[in-house]
């Protein structure tokens, strides 16, 4: 039986995580597994495919936030991923289990997917992707049973995987790792790491982004990566504090970014860095800052080494 706890969710932000349009030069967006949104009577009309994921956090000011990452794909046209951010008012005796009830979670899943489809059409219009008139003129309908399935999948994932993971890593999550001030050195170190990862995973056509996402997110949980990125990008305005689990995953991403920047495709990444103002002298700040971050978090790095979490990204990504 579900709790009678009254929880109010406030949608306060939609982030476009990434968008790719199909083209002969960009074919790997076609490798995507999801659920059909609807079955059109005309077989010539492409079918939307959707799926979703989730994450959640408690901010430094003790505000609870829940995220639904919605994917939408239209074969031969494009693929989009958005994050819907929801806030919850402070409630006594609240547990994350309380969100993962069919009646509650279903509302968020449906809302996030509707926003995903809306922004898919909007992004296609902005990026010059000409969609079939049937798609533009009529909002895609989301069958109730598909929403039920997606909701059930998230609930099963939480209780079977996420909750046990959080319990097993409770000490690392509660433990302070580092607080970074908004200084130039740390801003460059954090921003360049994230920028390189975004190029390798989402944007740069010189990389096999689909394959790279599969490999990287097999090690760093995808939804967790987006949450960590959101937390880090505010460093230019305020200090950020990372716990042991967060710095563990960030150092993995930093190691990956450095290896890719110095690898055989590094010239392509250097072009992007220079075009955004990260010239050679600024890149030196990144290398120095990255080394300093590793040194400051030596215990976390040592734990990674002992658990054999050192990766040859040259060979794993392409």
UniProtKB/TrEMBL annotation:
<protein>
    <submittedName>
        <fullName>Uncharacterized protein</fullName>
    </submittedName>
</protein>
